[in-house]
Specification:
seven-stranded parallel β-sheet, 15 helices, 25% helix, binds beta-D-galactopyranose
Length: 738
């Protein structure tokens, strides 16, 4: 395995063990007498305290006033955290060093041989992070493996069963076992004699280490959270629960979303609304892009009456047809916006596209911005797409649209820290307005960070590498993030449909046609699409797209119930195989397949061709389309045609597949065709509630159990504390597959 990078040195390990033993004894003695202990790390005094069950905080110096946890956390799901299995902490806090220097803070954390690390937020290029230098920085373009991305996180999890989270909004650098300090004598890196004559030889002598070093320039103090497992999955669950648990999107949010072209007008939007219903292509959400406003870069948040003469009629017509309307915007307030004057005193000292940047840390800015949006919400807007809240591409000299790191905000934070919080703050301001009306929303946003798992919002990007999109889906799971590998134009039919398959198997099934006049299945080439020059196979492709979207709709009850487990237990719905099969070495590097809930595995196809190699972890698996059986522990070449989803089901599963509906209405009842794989008896549970409000938090829900026995599937309901009086599911058929 590539991450086994160090040779072992017995003497240094022995010395290290003796040191650890003595240090542990001292720490334990102190801990017996006090709750929070103060221990002397190598360089700086640090305090140790328990934040929540299985979460230890190490602190040194004077941490910043606004940290990710102080801004976005603070509401841990303690009861659920207590229910998680408790294990021996697999990293000893006493072996973690915190240091405050004139430069800032540094942290160093031990790293065992054979440990692999994951995380750092929504990473696109890398998966296993050991042996890499990572710089999780906010960027609008995930251009390089360093870690610049829409949703960076100074947080990693280890296969040894712990997580390390640096609770800072500052820029950080993590050296993940890449470097060695000179006190680690004798060196773990083999020293090569002689003179290097080529770069390969030169680089072979570089040092590698058994610690992670973290650099936080500018910080006067630091807080490090050590999150216990015992397994990788438990670490992630504990982290999500520390942030309040996972979100439960409205049911309609899990249906199909189509975003129309940026310059759409009221009539063209309604033509789209008619198109989907006429062609019986399910669609729950229509998204409007910049053109709905009088000005968009920066934003006024005012409907353009030229293009949308009667927006209230538009919203109610869409509603009548079963659609939810989503509006694009960003947070930079145009001088013609009605909120410009009021929000000016609560904004930063740099403009973006000539617009003010609200300081959402201030209650005044939140209430002016949120209060104004409340009226859009009461007009019938169901969610927002919060664009451009990341940062201009910091690796290019000519990309300068955003506020700089030197920007000053009235709350006292600088631009560097604000970047890290901006997407999360912006989305929270708007989502709080929906909460006030007891309605769930499901937003798109382009930037996020730590402790956002409980917020119903999905990340997206302008980048468009399909392989990276799938890897990002795997990586999003380590940090409580949701990611949409959206589809736009394509270079071939295979490329288009493979992308469409992937997005159907993601948190949000979205086609983002913001620059396409017509649906891309009619013409996936951008230039020809604009000219209505449709493909000869347009009708066939429309049918194929419908089949894929129908399949997404069939999965909706399963997905919704998996999201409920995300909410309650913190288990991410979409997650890489290594979380479920940590003992299987083969899964350590797999970032092109992932679990969806507990019993489905996706293995998306990329590029041209209809087959790929799929790795099946232990057990028996079935192709959802053909019922072909696969033996776990093996790699198979598997074909999936364009009109089916590359999806596999674990033996022992009862999978309820809904008859596809055109949209999810308030009184939709899903008719379930159940498939039972490989066993005569099994069961599954579904979450049942109104699907739109927060009434489930007040106990208004049912747990529905489907039980397969004697060739039949029976449905039973256990009411939650207050119960849900409606009905969402009924069983119409059962098929047993050997
Ligand atoms: C981009 C965004 C696209 C689209 C476009 C409209 O920033 O990523 O999805 O919304 O803006 O201008």
């Amino acid at each position: 395995m590539t991450y086994l990078i160090c040779s072992h040195d017995i003497v240094s390990d022995l010395l290290c063990s003796i040191y650890m033993l003595v240090k542990n004894i001292v720490v334990i003695c102190i801990a017996l007498f006090t709750g929070a202990v103060s221990i002397r790390a190598t360089e700086t005094e640090m305090t140790v305290s328990e934040l929540a069950p299985g979460v230890t905080v190490l602190s040194a110096g004077t941490p910043d006033r606004y940290t990710p946890y102080s801004v976005f956390g603070g509401n841990p799901a303690l009861e659920a955290m207590r229910k998680l299995p408790a294990g021996e902490p697999s990293v000893d806090p006493a072996m973690i060093n915190l240091k405050v220097t004139d430069r800032g803070c540094t942290v160093s954390v031990p790293l065992g041989d054979g440990e692999q690390l994951y995380g750092f937020g929504l990473q696109f290029e890398t998966f296993g992070q050991r042996g890499l230098r990572k710089q999780p920085r906010v960027n609008d373009n995930p251009l390089n493996g360093l870690g610049y991305t829409h949703a960076p996180q100074p947080f990693y999890v280890s296969t040894a069963g712990y997580g390390i989270l640096v609770n800072t909004n500052r820029n950080t650098t993590f050296l993940c076992g890449t470097n060695e300090q000179n006190d680690n004598y004798p060196s773990r890196t083999a020293v090569r004699e002689g003179i290097a004559t080529d770069t390969g030889e030169l680089y072979r002598s570089r040092t590698a280490g058994n610690r992670v070093y973290i650099d936080i320039p500018g910080a006067k103090g630091v807080e490090v959270m050590v999150i216990d497992g015992p397994t990788l999955k438990d670490v992630v669950r504990r982290y999500n629960l520390l942030g309040g648990g996972g979100c439960l999107p409205p049911m309609w949010g899990l249906g199909f979303k189509y975003r129309v072209k940026g310059d759409a007008v009221q009539d063209s939007v309604m033509r789209f609304a008619g198109y989907f219903r006429d062609r019986r292509i399910p669609c729950d959400v229509l998204g409007l892009e910049p053109g709905w406003q009088t000005a968009a870069y920066s934003c006024t948040y005012v409907w353009d009456e030229g293009r949308f003469p009667d927006h209230c009629a538009l919203l109610s017509d869409l509603k009548a047809k079963g659609y939810h309307a989503n509006l694009w915007e960003h947070a930079y307030v145009n001088r013609h916006s009605p909120i410009h004057k009021d929000i000016e005193p609560y904004s930063g000292n740099f403009l973006v596209w000539g617009g003010l940047v609200p300081d959402f840390l201030l209650p005044e800015a939140r209430s002016i911005f949120g209060g104004y949006h409340a009226s859009l919400i009461s007009d019938g807007v169901a969610a927002f797409k919060l664009d451009e809240c990341d940062n201009s591409n910091i690796s290019r000299p000519d990309a300068t649209w955003c506020f700089p790191d030197m920007a000053e905000f009235p709350s006292g934070v600088d631009g560097e820290q604000m970047h890290q919080m901006f997407g999360g703050l912006y989305m929270s301001v708007l989502d709080d307005e929906f909460r006030k009306t007891d309605r769930r929303a499901y937003h798109d946003y382009r930037s996020s960070g730590l402790f956002m798992s409980s917020r119903p919002a999905v990340l997206y990007s302008d980048s468009y590498d399909h392989t990276e999109y799938i890897r990002a889906l795997c990586n999003s799971a380590f940090g409580g993030l949701l990611w949409c590998p959206e589809v736009r134009d394509s270079r071939s039919a295979d490329d288009f449909f493979h992308r469409l398959q992937t997005v159907m198997l993601s948190p949000e099934a979205m086609v983002n046609s913001w620059y396409l006049q017509y649906p891309p299945w009619l013409q996936f080439d951008r230039g020809r699409n604009e000219k209505a020059d449709f493909l000869p196979e347009a009708e066939e492709y429309e049918n194929t797209a419908r089949e894929l979207i129908n399949m997404r709709m069939a999965l909706l009850p399963y997905l919704y119930s998996a999201f409920n487990r995300y909410r309650v237990e913190g288990t991410p719905v979409f997650r890489p195989l290594v979380m479920d099969y940590p003992g299987d070495e083969n899964t350590l590097s797999i970032s092109d397949q992932y679990m969806i809930g507990d019993v489905l595995m996706a293995a998306p196809l990329v590029g041209d061709g209809d087959s790929r190699e799929v790795y099946f972890p232990e057990g028996i698996w079935y192709d959802i389309n053909t019922d072909t059986r696969y033996e776990g522990g093996n790699l198979y070449r598997v074909s999936t045609d364009r009109s089916h989803l590359p999806l596999y089901v674990k033996a022992g599963t009862l999978l309820p597949l809904a008859e596809p509906v055109q949209f999810v209405g308030d009184d939709t009842v899903f008719r379930l065709n159940c498939k039972v794989y490989g066993v005569p008896e099994t069961s599954c549970t579904l979450f049942e509630d109104d699907g739109v409000s927060y009434a489930f938090e007040r106990g208004e829900y049912n747990d529905v159990t489907l039980t397969a026995r004697n060739g039949k599937v029976k449905l039973s309901r256990a009411k939650g504390p207050e119960g849900f009086s409606g009905k969402r599911y009924e069983v119409v058929s059962a098929a047993f597959i050997d």
